[in-house]
Amino acid sequence: MTESELDLDVDLEEDFEPEDLEGPSPVATLGDPVLVVDDLNIVYRVFGGKAKQVAGGANVKEGTAPRRSFLRRLVSSTSQHVGAVSEVHAVRGISFVARHGESIGIVGINGSGKSTLLRAITGLIPPHSGGVYVAGDPALLGVNAALMPQLTGEKNIWIGGLALGLTPKQVEERFDDVVEFADIGDFVYLPMKTYSSGMSARLRFAISSAATPDILMIDEALATGDAAFKARSKARIDEVRKNAGTIFLVSHSTSTIEAMCTRVLWVHQGQLVMDGPTGEVLEHYRTFVRAHRQARSSARAGGVGPRARSKQRSKKSD
Ligand SMILES: Nc1ncnc2c1ncn2[C@@H]1O[C@H](COP(=O)(O)OP(=O)(O)OP(=O)(O)O)[C@@H](O)[C@H]1O
User: 9-36+99-137+213-302: which CATH architecture?
Assistant: First the structure.
């Protein structure tokens, strides 16, 4: 990895004290394969924007739209998609097999493709090429899960529960549990837009984990909440892992990954850099992040940060 590749945005939060998530490290009891990701490529198409190198170094291909005459550009300036079509190659040829009983962490710096990979596995984003083969029903549990802020917590529990495949009877049976787990009390009868961000994150987590999916995908859900909620979430996840099978967890907190996962996938610039036991992969990842931070701070000290570089560029163009 070169110095310039290291000049990316890093957000490695060690936000958990290990005692937040006490308990033995998870041990995988491996069963049958439940998920096969085969040479997966995901490409986002961005319309009307100017292509640029994004954080995390995702590969952006500029100007994939054909060059147009001045007249055409003038005419099309009233249309919705103005300018070039750019492509962001967010996931690049990732392959792996996940088995029943595994708890798999996905790490990588900002913009490396973790969430995209997770969304592709749940079928929210179609592959550009390659494939995702799933035995069972993956459910994505994330703080960004799409609930409706203008509706009450109660209505969102119903919508979310039904969307996760629960029957009306099951939603009714689990309703009180969800409210209790989220610890929102009578706020459940108020619109979600009146909630604090912690309250809505807790409710999202509680709704998503009310079902017991075959594959549970968690995107940063544990990054919110106090120590007690984190401990409750860990217990709930352990339960899901025991009953259901496979868990994927995206988190910037390596200590959370350590406490929850038996295996780690490290994604960088959309590619799978390492796939192996938690301790082994995290050791390399932490070393990478430290080197990365050092490279960034020396670059800043030497005045070659992004702002300084842009000044240098504008001077050159003067
Ligand atoms: N809807 C989208 N349209 C265009 N580009 C996108 C879209 N979503 C993500 N990207 C780009 O794809 C790349 C991977 O993004 P992704 O969100 O998967 O990374 P990540 O590792 O989850 O990042 P973070 O840790 O910051 O959440 C980034 O360059 C991002 O800018």
Answer: 3-Layer(aba) Sandwich (3.40)
Query: Ligand 1 pocket, 105 CB below 6 A?
Result: no
142 lines ligand 1 (CB under 6 A): no
Closest protein CA for atom 14 of ligand 1 = 113
Residues forming a β-bridge with 267: 272
Q: Report CA Rg, the chain.
A: 22
Q: Which residues pair with 22 in a beta bridge?
A: none
Closest residue CA from atom 16 of ligand 1: 113
pLDDT tens-place string over residues 117-128: 988 988 888 999
The answer, yes or no, to whether any atom of ligand 1 lies below 6 A from the CB of 60, is no
Residue 56 CA, chain-centre distance (Å), reads 13
0.80 surpassed by pTM: no
pLDDT tens-place string over residues 260-290: 889 999 999 999 999 999 999 999 999 999 9
Per-domain residue ranges of the chain: 9-36+99-137+213-302, 148-201
Decide whether any atom of ligand 1 lies within 6 Å of the 132 Cβ.
no
Reading the block at residue 262, the tokens are: 């038996």
